[in-house]
Design a protein that fits this description.
The chain is an alpha+beta fold. The chain contains 12 helices and 14 strands. It folds into 3 domains: 7-53, Uridine Diphospho-n-acetylenolpyruvylglucosamine Reductase, domain 2 (2-Layer Sandwich); 63-172, Uridine Diphospho-n-acetylenolpyruvylglucosamine Reductase, domain 3 (2-Layer Sandwich); 179-285, CO dehydrogenase flavoprotein, C-terminal domain (Enolase-like, domain 1, 2-Layer Sandwich), CATH 3.30.390. It is globular, with a radius of gyration of 19 Å. It starts with 6 loop residues before the first strand and ends with a helix.
Amino acid sequence: MKPAPFDYVAPRTLAAALAALAEHGDEAKVIAGGQSLLPMLNLRVARPAVLVDVGRVAGLAGITVRDGILRIGARTRQADLLASRTAQERWPLIAEAMGHLAHPQIRNQGTVGGSLAHADPSAELPVVMTALHATMRVQSVRGERQIVAEDFFLTHFTTILEPDELLVEIVVPALPARTGTGFVEFARRHGDFALGGAACTVTLDDAGRVDAASAVLLAAGAVPVSATVAIEHLVGAFPTTDRIAKASRLQVAALSPTGDMHGSTSWRRVLLERQLRDGLSLAVERTPR
């Protein structure tokens, strides 16, 4: 297997990268870590005329916290995000999910922005960033846009990015006080694409009722699926085992996940109900009292 012929440019500045994308438009593909794109090139699923390599562009990598907000450069290696003490302590959902992401060799080269722009609904990062209400900061020669994660993903492997736009930073707000998080997924083997999962946050009020919550399902549709039905059933109530179980049943009853060679639609509903229940239960259990 080898890719179809293509031209290659490796800009060193953000301005040069954006100019290259503006020049080549639909004919260009961005490559950073290459862990998703290279297999697609070799299988000729993707046939860009030009590869724009942003791997050497200064200023696109790094993890910082300013005013309590986490900022992740799009070119940040997944391994670096996993190893970040700041993310582990203050955004534990990210660290927990990253431990499920592929294998160390993949994480050492794969980038955070690359995974998000690839938009695989079975991937961990799109689900987690949606659950955390992250914002994608996007630039082109025309200017800048800020896109909330829930609007960023359109369908399988497709985002709202225009051909001349580049994802440059992911901005994650601070978690409210008294918030717990939980991430669960099921895969045939560790590192395989997940067949189902859930990323959850739960915030309790002083009385122990659910003040706010977020739950997003992995591999449940063409994009990360927000469990809005379950959340509506939980907010304002005490998060008992029975209520969480009922909320999960109500949510999954409203879904029609696609069946495939790994499992039928009915099997996926059973799996997703369990994953959602377990993710919410973990989040409640981990909420500071």
